[in-house]
TrEMBL record:
This is Glycosyltransferase family 2 protein. It comes from the Bacteria. Gene3D superfamilies: Spore Coat Polysaccharide Biosynthesis Protein SpsA, Chain A. It comes from Mesorhizobium marinum. Pfam families: Glycos_transf_2. Residues 15-133 form the Glycosyltransferase 2-like domain. Signal peptide: none annotated. InterPro entries: Glyco_trans_2-like, Glycosyltransf_2, Nucleotide-diphossugar_trans. Transmembrane segments: none annotated.
Amino acid sequence: MLVSIHLTTFCQAASGWLERAIASVLEQTYADFELICYDDGSYDGTAQLLARFASEDRRVRVITGSPNLNSVAKSLGRCFLARSPEAGAITWMFDDNILAPDALQTLVSAMERTGADVVYGQTRIMTVDGSSWLIGTREPEVIGASFQATSADVPNAGILIRPEVFERSGWYDSSIILRRSCDWDLFRRIWSSGSTIVKVDHVCATEFGELSPSSLRNSFDTSFELMKRYVRLRDEIGFRLDVASATYGPADVVPEGPWSKDELSYIYHGFVRYFVSVGNLGKAAEWGNEIISLNGLDDDLVVKNLRRKFGDQPEILEAVVSGLFARRVADPAVSIVRYSFKREVAEYLQRRIRTAKSQAARVYWKVAFHVLRRVWRSLPR
């Protein structure tokens, strides 16, 4: 049985993790696989690294994405659509994972022996203090009863799924609201789709995501309660969740429902941060204006001053303004968004300073950066 392995990565050439992840795939004792790598608009040498692997092993294929998607649902969707039609099962491999040498052999053997639609083993999650814990140790029926209580119970790596399962369950939802835990939502639907699911007692992968500052668990805030409400409202309305819709459809749709102002502020800030992260400042500006209007901040003195100063840069202006007011418009439980957003905006402006093509442009961006730093310092903590 041909196994289609899908890997999405972004700017991990220098870290060594991507090279180590791919090497662990190529060293599998089970050799009948294809590895489809999605390069999510990297600019650090990742493309050259992937090209080398592809030239050395015909089982490796590379999809080069541009612009950056910063969405597992979308990038893995493109891998899925590019898979070989002969593939009898798919699995995922992330650039901060390492597969055990016998992972594929173990999973394929269990799938062929039992005829199951889904087979999963365990993944060892490494923590910053050097300890670890296992995910995927519980029986399928126990996991099926736990989706309303936890968003992390099924391993992302070390799982094998027949492609026809997604015809029943749908694909990952690419909504920004679910970015941190879109796997929880997908597995919840797979578990309720009538698929036959089997667990094998074998550690198939090791994950180092907690050690990476760029991983979603460390770079994107979320609320499990909001995610549960979103999927309930989404399912009531009947959003399309096939692969093509998730891969190419909009990621910033909020289903109608009983959202509070604080909850909408939290959701909209997530939209702003996402669109800033992919360089789409026009969309960030749209949601920044939604935050300002939602909270009646059009007449706020800081808003007025910033709009006067940066009126010729509306995308940056509205994105920055929305970040500045995260603490003021949201309850303390979600105020961390403000600080995360400030870091992203600062990194964006510093990048513009470094890449400016003229001295005048460099001076302009430096002034903008210093003005915003003064504004940030003036805001109440």
